[in-house]
Amino acid sequence: MQSRRIKIGNKYIQGFLIKLVNKNLIVLLGSKGYIMCGYLNLGVANKFKEVAVKIIKVSSIKEALEAKVHSVTYAARRLGIRKGQPIKDVLKIIA
Fold first, then answer.
1. Which residues contact 76 (CB under 8 A, 6 or more apart)?
2. pTM
3. What string of H, E and C letters represents the secondary structure of 21-73?
4. Could you tell me the strand order of the sheet in which 24-29 lies?
5. Cα(29)–Cα(12) distance, rounded to whole angstroms?
6. What share of the chain has pLDDT > 70, as a percent?
7. What is the pLDDT of residues 14-46, one digit of tens each?
């Protein structure tokens, strides 16, 4: 597992990369919510009313930071997070 602390303004988020058998699981965790690769089940995240953002086609934390939003939970939408939004903008919201 790799872990990386990433500064966003005057706050920090934590980036995690877990090597699985065939792919990497990527999570960017802030105090208000998280961003996750394609392993994220939005139905479950919605059930728990989490601020969750799904990104796809990333295999590193660096790629995750350059990605755009693929889909979001209802709670994330209420914070103004939208499909197609750059992840760097989302990090400012969830940090």
1. 33, 51, 52, 53
2. 0.94
3. CCCEEEEEECCCCEEECCCCCHHHHHHCCCCEEECCCCCCHHHHHHCECCEEC
4. 2-8, 11-19, 24-29, 34-36, 52-54, 71-72
5. 9
6. 100
7. 999 999 999 999 999 999 999 999 988 999 999
Question: Quick check: 93 and 10 in contact, CB under 8 A?
Answer: no
Q: Are 34 and 28 in contact (CB under 8 A)?
A: yes
Say how many residues make up the chain. 95
Taken in order of first residue, the domains within the chain and their CATH numbers are 2-94 (3.30.1980.10)
